[in-house]
């Protein structure tokens, strides 16, 4: 008997009919001889509605109480799903993140999992039950407070449980049929990918692809847990994410030169103007940002002007952290010695990802030619062995993504990509 962990996103359990449809799929997996652990997100837009409600009550809710509020959404889902499964004649038990043994640090709203002790889950499985776990949440190791893992944290919950329970596979059910070569909402002719490596998936996730959370893929790679991304609205095979190619029939799926094109419009750009070009200045800037607990993405420093000895340093970061970063830099301006700050939140990032590009000359040239032909101006460039990313104007992103997708022969002959639920998770 194998053990399977399944995760269902908010669009899959958005209403009573969706919950009953998911319950039937879970029971089918149980009938196939598997032990089944299920991780669920909150129904539909419940989390967004709870956030809106909190903001109406308090503009700056306390982290502990905010987490206590947000975890209510997943508790509703897990209980209703357990009821639906029992109605189909099978036993199911629901567990909160803390009951399931998901232990985190004490950072509210974006906690990290530090351990999983799934004793109660194992006991429930040994009794023949289906275990339903609330995703996105855990309990802090020191204070025993309820914590949340940040948006998309249910994916990480599922992979962490799969690793702790030594599951054969972690199935991530969403509202599209798998991982596509681009966002099907932007590129109608995007192709479904049959298999993708952990490394390529990490780059796509970090570059804006929303189908899997970056932390989830990172966790899966660390513990070598295969992920199967598929739709809860169809019975089609999805996309396998693993360390080694899978076999379909009598042939092994080969890795493509280019895995896909990702985009992200959730970032902003800060330019620190008039920085003295001497050792220690960049360190002072980024130490200030780090002390404010802000993650940055791309960084570019201009060549200093010979006449002034000053340079400009630009970097990108989440829009939601923009105000905090500006305030931190302004507070430390005397220590750094820059002239001014520029803030721009009308940018977008386009990334080309593929392990094959490091051994195929001409990929970079073709990428920039496609953007040029589409009339897209480039502001920042960043590269790795398997990724090229550029920053451009936000309004240019859809056309840029389609142009690059076509230039690298990624277009499907038909409009293959179907978005069943409409939310992307």
Automatic annotation (TrEMBL):
<dbReference type="InterPro" id="IPR001341">
    <property type="entry name" value="Asp_kinase"/>
</dbReference>
<dbReference type="GO" id="GO:0009090">
    <property type="term" value="P:homoserine biosynthetic process"/>
</dbReference>
<dbReference type="InterPro" id="IPR005260">
    <property type="entry name" value="Asp_kin_monofn"/>
</dbReference>
<protein>
    <recommendedName>
        <fullName>Aspartokinase</fullName>
        <ecNumber>2.7.2.4</ecNumber>
    </recommendedName>
</protein>
<keyword id="KW-0028">Amino-acid biosynthesis</keyword>
<feature type="domain" description="ACT">
    <location>
        <begin position="352"/>
        <end position="425"/>
    </location>
</feature>
<feature type="domain" description="ACT">
    <location>
        <begin position="270"/>
        <end position="346"/>
    </location>
</feature>
<dbReference type="InterPro" id="IPR041740">
    <property type="entry name" value="AKii-LysC-BS"/>
</dbReference>
<comment type="pathway">
    <text>Amino-acid biosynthesis; L-threonine biosynthesis; L-threonine from L-aspartate: step 1/5.</text>
</comment>
<dbReference type="InterPro" id="IPR036393">
    <property type="entry name" value="AceGlu_kinase-like_sf"/>
</dbReference>
<dbReference type="InterPro" id="IPR045865">
    <property type="entry name" value="ACT-like_dom_sf"/>
</dbReference>
<feature type="binding site">
    <location>
        <position position="74"/>
    </location>
    <ligand>
        <name>substrate</name>
    </ligand>
</feature>
<keyword id="KW-0067">ATP-binding</keyword>
<feature type="binding site">
    <location>
        <begin position="7"/>
        <end position="10"/>
    </location>
    <ligand>
        <name>ATP</name>
    </ligand>
</feature>
<comment type="pathway">
    <text>Amino-acid biosynthesis; L-lysine biosynthesis via DAP pathway; (S)-tetrahydrodipicolinate from L-aspartate: step 1/4.</text>
</comment>
<dbReference type="GO" id="GO:0009089">
    <property type="term" value="P:lysine biosynthetic process via diaminopimelate"/>
</dbReference>
<feature type="binding site">
    <location>
        <position position="185"/>
    </location>
    <ligand>
        <name>ATP</name>
    </ligand>
</feature>
<dbReference type="InterPro" id="IPR002912">
    <property type="entry name" value="ACT_dom"/>
</dbReference>
<dbReference type="GO" id="GO:0005524">
    <property type="term" value="F:ATP binding"/>
</dbReference>
<feature type="binding site">
    <location>
        <begin position="174"/>
        <end position="175"/>
    </location>
    <ligand>
        <name>ATP</name>
    </ligand>
</feature>
<comment type="function">
    <text>Catalyzes the phosphorylation of the beta-carboxyl group of aspartic acid with ATP to yield 4-phospho-L-aspartate, which is involved in the branched biosynthetic pathway leading to the biosynthesis of amino acids lysine, threonine, isoleucine and methionine.</text>
</comment>
<dbReference type="Pfam" id="PF22468">
    <property type="entry name" value="ACT_9"/>
</dbReference>
<keyword id="KW-0220">Diaminopimelate biosynthesis</keyword>
<dbReference type="InterPro" id="IPR054352">
    <property type="entry name" value="ACT_Aspartokinase"/>
</dbReference>
<dbReference type="InterPro" id="IPR018042">
    <property type="entry name" value="Aspartate_kinase_CS"/>
</dbReference>
<keyword id="KW-0547">Nucleotide-binding</keyword>
<keyword id="KW-0418">Kinase</keyword>
<dbReference type="GO" id="GO:0005829">
    <property type="term" value="C:cytosol"/>
</dbReference>
<feature type="binding site">
    <location>
        <position position="47"/>
    </location>
    <ligand>
        <name>substrate</name>
    </ligand>
</feature>
<dbReference type="GO" id="GO:0019877">
    <property type="term" value="P:diaminopimelate biosynthetic process"/>
</dbReference>
<keyword id="KW-0457">Lysine biosynthesis</keyword>
<dbReference type="Pfam" id="PF00696">
    <property type="entry name" value="AA_kinase"/>
</dbReference>
<dbReference type="GO" id="GO:0004072">
    <property type="term" value="F:aspartate kinase activity"/>
</dbReference>
<comment type="similarity">
    <text>Belongs to the aspartokinase family.</text>
</comment>
<dbReference type="InterPro" id="IPR001048">
    <property type="entry name" value="Asp/Glu/Uridylate_kinase"/>
</dbReference>
<keyword id="KW-0808">Transferase</keyword>
